């Protein structure tokens, strides 16, 4: 090594950001570490914004209770390429105000998990149905704001759904579930657990329409009879 080479120093931020740092380094770091990097310097803050604008998966489940809602809005303000969004454990601060802009500018979302986000309203589900027509997986467990009309909107616009978790969505009744499974016949996983409104009618429509079904959770559906479940197991293959 000559003297000229010895005098050269390569810093991390000298590497190509979008070709090296973002896909090969930042993409492997937990989100909480990404957030912490912003405090190192203005350059790191800019780098993190570049990463957040290009990330396809955003999961705040692990840091949901700690992240301020203002930070959530800032982090995703430039992102238009999200494919997976998980908001579990953020129920005490995520509202329509924070979520609707993110949904509106990310039409390529394929997986969304809003389980436990009790402060949202039906407007968020309607926004998902209108913007995310390629949606395949949706988690709505313990979202009691999900009603029949918003679920119908989802069924009308997201016919390619493969899984949906409606555990403890107690406003839903048979008519909404029957409409859903008629429109979304590609469903492979469906949870209707902890809903006393669900009866044999829903189970029979599932059996009739969802021939690719692999998992159906009816835990706590006290009005569903064993006969309907047996019929389902012989119909779905």
Topology:
Blueprint: H1 3-6, H2 17-24, H3 31-37, H4 42-54, E1 57-59, H5 69-75, E2 84-86, H6 96-104, E3 111-113, H7 122-131, E4 137-139, H8 148-157, E5 163-165, H9 174-183, E6 189-191, H10 200-209, E7 215-217, H11 226-235
Parallel strand pairs: 1-2, 2-3, 3-4, 4-5, 5-6, 6-7
Helix pairs in contact: 2-4, 6-7, 7-8, 8-9, 9-10, 10-11
Calculate Rg over CA atoms. 22 Å
Total helical elements = 11
- Helical content stands at 40-55%
CATH architecture of the largest domain: Alpha-Beta Horseshoe
Number of domains: 2
Number of strands: 7
| Alpha-carbon distance between the two ends | 68 Å
What is the level 1 CATH name of the largest domain? Alpha Beta
The CATH topology of the largest domain comes to Leucine-rich repeat, LRR (right-handed beta-alpha superhelix)
- Strand order of the main beta sheet, please? 1-2-3-4-5-6-7
Biggest sheet character: 7 strands, parallel
**Per the principal axes of the C-alpha atoms, what is the gross shape?**
elongated
Beta-strand share of residues: 5-15%
Low-confidence stretches: none
Helix and strand run: HHHHEHEHEHEHEHEHEH
The helix-and-strand class reads alpha/beta
- Give the integer mean of the pLDDT values: 90
Task: Spell out the CATH superfamily of the largest domain.
Answer: Ribonuclease Inhibitor
Question: How does this model look, in words?
Answer:
The protein is of the alpha/beta class and 237 residues long. It folds into two domains: 44 residues; 180 residues, Leucine-rich repeat, LRR (right-handed beta-alpha superhelix). Helix content is 41%, strand content 9%. It contains eleven helices and seven strands. Strands 1-2-3-4-5-6-7 form a seven-stranded parallel beta sheet, with no helix packed on it. Helix 5 links the parallel strand 1 and strand 2. Helix 2 packs across helix 4, helix 6 packs parallel to helix 7 and helix 7 packs parallel to helix 8. The model has no long low-confidence stretch (mean pLDDT 90).
